[in-house]
């Protein structure tokens, strides 16, 4: 079942929760809706489910307008962060619930229900706890049972709203791998809401990044990671360092004389403000060479003092305070601290010490221009 979302808007009072959202989801796809708290993820999911009505726009299931179709008729399954199982029922009865509640003419007999429930319990690898009550399960087990219960009625669409949000980091990681495997077996069209970028990038076929009720970007995890469409996407997807600069002669001049290639075919007007975003692992770090008369130290990189080094396992995380030369009048070195990540082995080989001056050079950056602000 494919889903087409056409121009969907939703207001709560004067607040625009969703503004003209358009999205096509292919049959059998697993989509992650990713964005910060309050960006409209849950509202969009509830509109797709039929739990909320859009003010404008429409939802289509395989081309058929379902905007006015009741939630019960849409054939969607839900799993929510705190989707409480029925406490007084066993695991088995929880999963059987949806089947037993079907109208008499559609309801399978008890033998069929039993076979179906046991099949689902073995799919979520919990057939050995069918007789337990929810209070006797771990949080991760409860969410797997909630998923089995949602799947029991064979939904055409599965909607998951932060299903692992309340679980600890290790269990979350296990469950998202498990969810991906389950999806590969079942191919139910699924939409997964999360504010955790790692979760979205790891689980989904396609990531849809929402910001303030609008889609900022959609693409495969690799596409959004390698080619973020906006500063928002770039900084939301992971740690970044921000360096301010300006376009000049087809290049980007950052403070201190460091220059980067200008992205795209048409460089903007000289003087256009630019922002270069650099991920910590894309910064090359070396010890500052001694200054010579011709070349001041750090002219080909950014000079910075190593304030703190945190070496845990294979990675050394370096916190650097930019400085050592005077930034030009309208440029700053960097908004705050510079964060770099290098292999721990390299850190030990270079024998870096806190307090010494280093030079950092971006290997790779994402540059965005403040168009219209050029001089
Ligand atoms: N029934 C409602 N009445 C008024 N405002 C609402 C209602 N439902 C949602 N909102 C507001 O709409 C915005 C979007 O809410 P939504 O729950 O979709 O965000 P979200 O991206 O899922 O956030 P979170 O990750 O925190 O769950 C929020 O600012 C929220 O306060």
UniProtKB/TrEMBL annotation:
Domain of life: Bacteria
Molecular functions (GO terms): ABC-type sulfate transporter activity; ATP binding; ATP hydrolysis activity
Domain ABC transporter: 3-237
One Gene Ontology CC term in the entry: ATP-binding cassette (ABC) transporter complex
SUPFAM superfamilies: MOP-like, P-loop containing nucleoside triphosphate hydrolases
Keyword set, alphabetical order: ATP-binding, Cell membrane, Membrane, Nucleotide-binding, Sulfate transport, Translocase, Transport
SMART domains: AAA (SM00382)
InterPro entries in alphabetical order: AAA+_ATPase, ABC_SmlMolc_Importer, ABC_transporter-like_ATP-bd, ABC_transporter-like_CS, CysA_C, Mo/tungstate-bd_C_term_dom, P-loop_NTPase, Sulph_transpt1
CDD domains for this protein: ABC_CysA_sulfate_importer
PANTHER family, alphabetized: SPERMIDINE/PUTRESCINE IMPORT ATP-BINDING PROTEIN POTA (PTHR42781), SPERMIDINE_PUTRESCINE IMPORT ATP-BINDING PROTEIN POTA (PTHR42781:SF4)
Protein name (record): Sulfate ABC transporter ATP-binding protein
UniProt organism field: Melaminivora suipulveris
């Amino acid at each position: 079942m494919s889903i087409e979302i056409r121009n969907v808007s939703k207001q709560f009072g004067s607040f625009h929760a969703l503004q003209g959202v358009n999205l096509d989801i292919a049959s059998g796809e697993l989509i992650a809706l990713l964005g910060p708290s309050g960006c409209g993820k849950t509202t969009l999911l509830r509109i797709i489910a039929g739990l909320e009505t859009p003010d404008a726009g429409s939802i289509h299931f395989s081309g058929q307008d379902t905007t006015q179709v009741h939630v019960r008729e849409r054939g969607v399954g839900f799993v929510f962060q705190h989707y409480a199982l029925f406490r007084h029922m066993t695991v088995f009865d929880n999963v059987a619930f949806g089947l037993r509640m079907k109208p008499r003419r559609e309801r399978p007999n008890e033998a069929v229900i039993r076979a179906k429930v046991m099949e689902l319990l073995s799919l979520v690898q919990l057939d050995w706890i069918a007789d337990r009550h929810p209070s006797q399960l771990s949080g991760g087990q409860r969410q797997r049972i909630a998923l089995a219960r949602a799947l029991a009625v064979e939904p055409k669409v599965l909607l998951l709203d932060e299903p692992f949000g309340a679980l600890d980091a290790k269990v979350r990681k296990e469950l998202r791998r498990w969810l991906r495997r389950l999806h590969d077996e079942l191919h139910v069209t699924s939409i997964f809401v999360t504010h955790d970028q790692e979760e979205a990038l790891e689980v989904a076929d396609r990531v849809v990044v929402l910001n303030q009720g609008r889609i900022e970007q959609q693409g495969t995890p690799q596409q959004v990671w390698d080619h973020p469409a906006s500063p928002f996407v770039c900084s939301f997807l992971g740690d970044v360092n921000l360096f301010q600069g300006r376009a000049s002669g087809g290049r980007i001049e950052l403070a201190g004389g460091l220059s980067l290639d200008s992205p795209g075919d048409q460089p903007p007007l000289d003087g256009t403000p630019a922002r270069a975003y650099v991920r910590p692992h894309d910064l090359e770090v070396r010890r500052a060479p001694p200054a010579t008369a011709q070349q001041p130290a750090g002219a080909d990189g950014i000079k910075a003092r190593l304030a703190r080094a945190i070496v845990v396992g294979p990675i050394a995380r370096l916190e650097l305070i930019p400085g050592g030369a005077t930034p030009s009048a309208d440029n700053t070195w960097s908004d705050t601290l510079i964060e770099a990540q290098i292999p721990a082995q390299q850190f030990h080989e270079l024998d870096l010490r806190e307090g010494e001056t280093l030079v950092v050079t971006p290997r790779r950056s994402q540059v965005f221009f403040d168009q219209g602000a050029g001089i």
